[in-house]
Specification:
24% of the residues lie in helices and 22% in strands. Helix 2 packs parallel to helix 3. The protein is of the alpha/beta class and 205 residues long.
């Protein structure tokens, strides 16, 4: 399945998104659990989490690859864990530390969000493990369509000297496609972790 530079319309992205979301939903609970454990092993092997590291991890819902093993791994390694929180008033996303015993709510998308601690600026994170619907080897990412991650890290497209945290997508291997046309707002990934391997992304330039 291919999205080319001449096929970057919203309709083309919508078609690709629908196809891969359907395939994600077809993953059995056993396959999902097994893939999630292997992704956590790959993250541990390559990114070497350590105490005090500020790691943002998405709070998965049923359709996405389960992030629970990643959260357990980060806690075991002594990392500070931050979960995204969507601000519906400003249509933006913040990152809030997930501390033991902190109050949690479920947003309108069915995603768990922590409360009770002050948000941290996106650029002060060290590592961000984020979900996606499709990706390519150049680091282009197709998300759910809300644009929250692209807005949160838009500064990476403006600043070359300081790009902030490492952005690492988390996905099943079947979510990789040959090419995704870059839209002006897209923020590229540094790597993607699947149950099979870690893909170091290139810019293609």
């Amino acid at each position: 399945m291919r999205v080319t530079p001449s096929d970057s319309s919203p309709a083309a992205r919508k078609t690709l998104r629908a196809s891969l979301r359907a395939r994600r939903r077809a993953v059995t609970p056993e396959q999902r659990a097994r893939a999630a454990r292997q992704v956590a092993r790959n993250v541990d092997r390559v990114f070497r989490l350590k105490p005090g590291l500020r790691v943002a991890i998405y709070a998965s819902f049923r359709e996405e690859l389960d992030s629970a093993p990643l959260i357990r791994l980060a806690r075991k390694r002594g990392c500070r864990i931050f979960l995204p929180r969507i601000d519906t008033r400003t249509i933006s996303m913040k990152f809030v530390e997930a501390r033991a015993g902190a109050r949690e709510t479920t947003n309108r998308l069915g995603i768990v969000e922590p409360h009770g601690t002050r948000p941290i600026g996106a650029r002060w994170l060290d590592l961000v493990l984020l979900p996606l619907v499709a990706f390519d080897a150049h680091g282009m990412r197709l998300g759910m369509g809300g644009g929250y991650y692209d807005r949160a890290f838009a500064y990476r497209n403006r600043h070359v000297a300081w790009r902030g945290p490492r952005l690492v997508g988390v996905a099943y291997s079947f979510q990789q496609v040959p090419s995704i046309a870059r839209a002006p707002h897209d923020v590229s990934l540094d790597a993607v972790v699947t149950e099979e391997r870690v893909i170091r992304c290139t810019t293609g330039s």
